[in-house]
Amino acid sequence: MNTKILFRSSILFFFCMISIQAQEVLTIEEAMKIALENNFEIKIAKNNTKISETNVTIGNAGMLPTATASVVDNNSITNSTQVRQDGTSTSLDNAKNNNLTYGVSLGWTVFDGMRMFARLDQLKELQKLGDTELKRTILMKIGQVNSAYYDLVQQQQQLVALDTTIVISKQRLDLAKNRFTIGKASKLEVLNAQVDLNTDMVALLRQKESYANSKILLNQHLARDPKINFTVTDEVTVDNKLLFADLLDLAQKQNPALELQVINKRIAELELKQIKADRYPVVNLTSGYNFTESQSSLGFTSENSSRGFTYGFNASLNIFDGFNQNRNEKVAKLQIENSKIAIEQQNMILNTQLSTAFQTYLTNLELIELEDSNESIAKQNLEITLDKFRIGTITTLEFRTAQLNYVNAKVRQSNAVYQAKLSEIALKELAGNISF
């Protein structure tokens, strides 16, 4: 481009940078940190993880004894008549009777077919399930933050491209007016230049609207006030060294969706163990210390009290329950089989997603090189066309075509880089390998 355009673009860029520096410069690292602290879904997932962790206790598994304190106080007022063996009788109206019992009892299941141990292991697996759900939520939300952030970067780049084309359109309008003044151009050329400038300004306004809405969306992902103003960095760096074999190996080890299916299989196996425990006897130890006091207004004994220690055990064994035990075990085994099928299905889905995403990634890397070349060619073409337009050897239509080709090339190049970054993010999310 000629020196005058470069000078005007530099001035415009300078004032844009002053405006940007007056705002908060949000880096991708800061955005991810804010999301990890503020995002509502991540907070909920963290609390669910704490719930699962809190549930992992030997008491919740049924391994500890239970102690119960109780008080029972029964009172009555009755009209009573007692007839003795010798035929005599005694009657009393409004006879008061009282029976008070209070004490502490202790119960402990000492054997239940190993159900309590299977239950404890299941609680631990449920904790792992919560941890994996949290990991999946974090990966998904961090992926969304990355996508929204780099979308904002490429829209910011498009704003710069549109600013540049407006500078060119304004210079074209000035040239057309000068040429019309000295009689070397018609009024039509001035009007066409004005219409094209207005068109560029409309495109710029639309892009500013899109840019502002994208900021609001990113603020939503960060769970903060949508009115917070900020700017982002002006470059997107794409990792062009990803290898499919490495990604597949990582995905097999740490993809959250696959991990969830593996944990669900283990939970189903432990559920079968608990069901099989019903084939064994259940032995409970019982003990307690009780106080009993009773008062009666009629009878041979008017007052009675006792206190003391009680102990014993009880055992029970399911002998026949209408074949429900066999049915429950069959259902549990089918659940395990379903979990195995789910793991195979998730493996296939994961391989398919990785394969398609990696192919898209490779295509986008090639598109970056192609669009870089197209942008360079379009820039050279615009410089030559502008020089020819200044001396009047080409038409305004040819000039406008070159100008639009340059803007479109800039936009396509920016979009190619953005799409490649999205592919990189998708691959790392599938591999469970997004850095945060």
TrEMBL record:
GO CC annotation terms, alphabetical: cell outer membrane; efflux pump complex
Record has Electron transport as a keyword: no
Statement: the UniProt record of this protein carries the keyword Nucleus: no
Pfam family for this entry, one: OEP
InterPro entries hit by this protein: OMP_efflux (IPR003423), TolC-like (IPR051906)
Keyword annotations of the record: Cell outer membrane, Membrane, Signal, Transmembrane, Transmembrane beta strand, Transport
Compartment annotation: Cell outer membrane
Signal peptide: 1-24
Superkingdom in the source lineage: Bacteria
Annotated GO MF terms: efflux transmembrane transporter activity; porin activity
Ranges in a coiled coil: none
PANTHER family, A to Z: OUTER MEMBRANE PROTEIN TOLC (PTHR30026)
Similarity remark: Belongs to the outer membrane factor (OMF) (TC 1.B.17) family.
Protein's recorded name: Transporter
